Amino acid sequence: MKKILKLMLVATFGMLLFSSCQEGETSMPEMKAGAVKNMMLVEGADAMIPALNPSGFSSALTLDVISDDEPASVQLYVEFFRIGSGFRDTAEWINQTTFPATNELSLQDLADLFPDSSSVILNDLDGGDVFTVYTGNIIMADGREIKDEYSYFVEAVSENTGNDTIIELNPTGHSPALQNIGQTVWLTQYIYYVGCPTDLGGTYDMTATGEGGYGLGAPSAWTSNFTEATITQISELNYTIEPAIGGLMVDYYAAFGAQVMTGEIMDVCGTLMAAGLNDGWNAPAHYEGTVDEATGVITIEWENPWGDWFTMILTPQ
């Protein structure tokens, strides 16, 4: 009798354990699909606002939301920034509810978005003024809000297909899989500069002098060993330049593994700004230049937080 009782207790315990496991499995939270945005300039549309003829500006941007679930809306905004005064204003543009969709943009559209600045926009824009189109959070059809600032992506492999998969984690706790995204760059803003025609591409004779090397055993006074620089145009306003900072990093810091740096600069109506450049130590650096319209000579001033600085003169060959 005791043996039968023991067997009944063991069986009962096993059933309870199995039931508990089943309940644990069914209580897992439902996994819902996430979403990413991608905004692209329409082929053939204006990529900048021409300073010499701003009224002729005609552009268009396509915005799409990629998701296995249905997106409901994304709010688009435009920010207006004046380079001379530092004035800044933001306006709601379009609440997009169809994906993908193409939104056209003209100078008059921009003036209508900023009524207090409409006269300036239509008649008095300066080279270097900026309009930035950017997107708000994604509102899904089920009411979820997917926020850019908290989303991040981890590569994994799908057990079912073996395809590369991206898992998106967001504040709502969902971990949806988006198939075959790979290394695609998802753009959520587009910047329109007021710019002028530019043609700086070519080879230049270069001289560069300055000071630097403090704390690394290098002399403070410096003249570059490089005598030539190459500028290559990569878009309507942007160029690469090599050596980007006059060879200073190689001349001073070769013992530390420094290499010739290629940087990206932007020509905004004769004023040069760094578009993708640092001091070689991943610290922000001050970088600005001017172009002499008569001679084509480029003068660039550069300084980093460590006290390194130089003046670089580029003369067209």
Shape: globular
Query: Helical proportion?
Result: 10-25%
Q: Low-confidence parts, pLDDT < 50 over ≥5 residues?
A: 1-13, 149-185
Taking strands numbered 1, 2, ... along the chain, how are they ordered across the largest sheet? Answer: 13-15-16-17-18-19-20-21
Q: By helix and strand content, what is the structural category?
A: mainly beta
Q: Gyration radius, to the nearest Å?
A: 28 Å
Please tell me about this protein's structure.
The chain has helices at 2-26, 107-113, 118-123, 248-253, and strands at 36-41, 49-50, 58-66, 71-81, 88-96, 101-106, 130-140, 145-146, 152-157, 164-169, 177-179, 189-195, 202-211, 221-223, 228-233, 238-242, 263-268, 271-276, 286-291, 298-303, 309-316. The protein is globular. Strands 13-15-16-17-18-19-20-21 form an eight-stranded antiparallel barrel. Strands 2, 4, 5, 7, 8 and 12 form a six-stranded mixed sheet that branches. Strands 1-3-6 form a three-stranded antiparallel sheet. It is mostly beta strands. It folds into two domains: 36-195, Sandwich (Immunoglobulin-like), CATH 2.60.40; 202-316, Lipocalin, CATH 2.40.128. A hairpin with a 7-residue loop joins strand 10 and strand 11.
